[in-house]
Amino acid sequence: MTLAQLGADVIRIDPIGGNIDISRWPLAPGGTSLYWASLNKAKRSVALALNTPQGQELATALICAPGAGGGNLLTNLPSGGWMSYQKLSARRSDLIMMRLTGTPSGGTAIDYTVNCASGFPLSTGTGEAPVNHVLPAWDVTAALYLSTGFLAAERARKATGQGQEVTLALSDVMLATVSNLGYVADVQINNAVRPPLGNSLYGAFGRDFATADGRRIMLTAISNRQWRAIGKATGLTERIAMIGPMMQVDLDDEGGRFEARHAIAALLEPWFARRTLAEITATFEGSGILWGPYQDFGQLVRDDPQCSPANPIFADISQPGVGKLMLNTQPLGFSETGRVPPAGAPSLGEHTESVLTEILGLPSAEYARLHDAGVVAGPQSH
Amino acid sequence: MTLAQLGADVIRIDPIGGNIDISRWPLAPGGTSLYWASLNKAKRSVALALNTPQGQELATALICAPGAGGGNLLTNLPSGGWMSYQKLSARRSDLIMMRLTGTPSGGTAIDYTVNCASGFPLSTGTGEAPVNHVLPAWDVTAALYLSTGFLAAERARKATGQGQEVTLALSDVMLATVSNLGYVADVQINNAVRPPLGNSLYGAFGRDFATADGRRIMLTAISNRQWRAIGKATGLTERIAMIGPMMQVDLDDEGGRFEARHAIAALLEPWFARRTLAEITATFEGSGILWGPYQDFGQLVRDDPQCSPANPIFADISQPGVGKLMLNTQPLGFSETGRVPPAGAPSLGEHTESVLTEILGLPSAEYARLHDAGVVAGPQSH
Lengths: 382, 382
Hints:
By secondary structure, chain A is an alpha/beta fold.
């Protein structure tokens, strides 16, 4: 989807009736999947009887279509049979095939089963039990590794004419990320397993605080400038300065502020508890403090001006089976090539006829014959 | 770092003494930052007095160096002054400048202050209080958008000769992701704010279970095949089948299994509570069940065979100031161009002399003069 949102013509090929995600929750009142609509934006959709030799041949012809538009496939299906790299690259030698698997050996795994092994659930929350984060972070990360990897492989192909198979295991995405963030090194070098710290930052000062009106805010200080801004805005500079000698730490050091975090919080908690979110917002305005209010998905959508069509990554779009809906494009802005505006998702099979006609040169009568034979399907309600 | 791990020559330019992340926790016993070492792998490091006109001129010359190696800059610093796109592109018109900001208007934000606004903390855990996930998912996602965006901009430059400024706001990374996952649509269309579900999946069956030996496992079923495998392996098929009529749901449907999740869990809980992790592992082997044990960062590093040099994304590397350490490369595998092996991080300023000599053709005597004048610095212990 990211590549489609960057301007590529991305064609999703599904079996007739849809794949396993076609009716995934959440659903619109009419039963159309909002999940599917949100994750297939800006693509074209083709529905073929992939369990028949004819459907497989049409898919192969599309994947291996001559010219710059063809020769690329991204899949998370098993690589055997007609969809193997071997079979497809015999048809088009410069094929780039991106294949996402659960494990490096091709085993099955999903975000949840990779996440439980990552160490994060046992480091999230307060430690009574593992806490799964709700954000499917490994799926999101894998998708962006795939878009990076495709562009890298296409760059290499432009230089050498050579295609290739690019593989990515969801478990390796997790392992690389855990290692990139220093958690592996901390165990190896210090024998230290990061404990759950609730909502506190590790290695710097940051925590959530409750307000007088039942809201919560996240307050952080990374730089010394941000740190001093907290004392200045709250009028607590002198009392905060007492914490350094009291806790025997250097409060001009990120690590020192982390070590003294409970004492710092003890001073700040009553300050926040006596003020409403609106009062805090007014006081912190222009102060250079790094903070923000917690909001739920409803508050985000209804109250946050950034989550609206005023933000150029969003636009109101009429989505088949759903109605008018605010959808987004990818978040990168390009000063010269511009941002591809937000686009909606297709309905399943919406482009079957136009794609087969345009790319494979299929005559109308032949499309009608394949349609009646159940090999291809046009737009279906879902 | 991802681009360096894909084979690019990535040069990080720091002020002498290092930037704010140079001593970020966790630290090795000697004080070297394991965080810095983990996040700067495969790069070269140059240290310049960036607060002096001479240091700024050297940095500008490096960024705008002629040839295919120059003309690219990634920064999260304010875009004013000598480092503005305007100033730098006047020196090299095909410059690609990637700029990461907190908000679209250039405001400050970090992973934590973006995350509290995302809706996820109030949807994670069991609902008594917001739960910050520990994984800095927005930073990870932003980094991969940047690598995708750079390759897209470089692809456009190859076609047209035109460079550009590419901007990315961390807040937009969050907003695009929340919207991609259907949370925005669910509020807009259904007025539904996803409630915290503990460790349960939304819209399908999945949950954690405690074992007889004090461990926990994550069990999920997305496809019907995976769902039926649970009944078969546990011997509970017939009793599970009673749940459909009892709860009046279709258990052959993902959503039906989600609606009946408490009844399903009530049946499965005692089964897991009577068995050790080893017994469960033996029973589930080859069953097609989608599951995994929870492990902390220590168990991951010590016990998981995938988190070891047996996995080609990892290798033991001697890291300056730290010693031997297992570090990783990026997780994509390329059948033709191969995987760039894992590489360590530089020490700060390790490549100042070689880079200035090689890229700018600086004579040794001139380097020595700049060094003595404090404009450049070689390797520093940190």
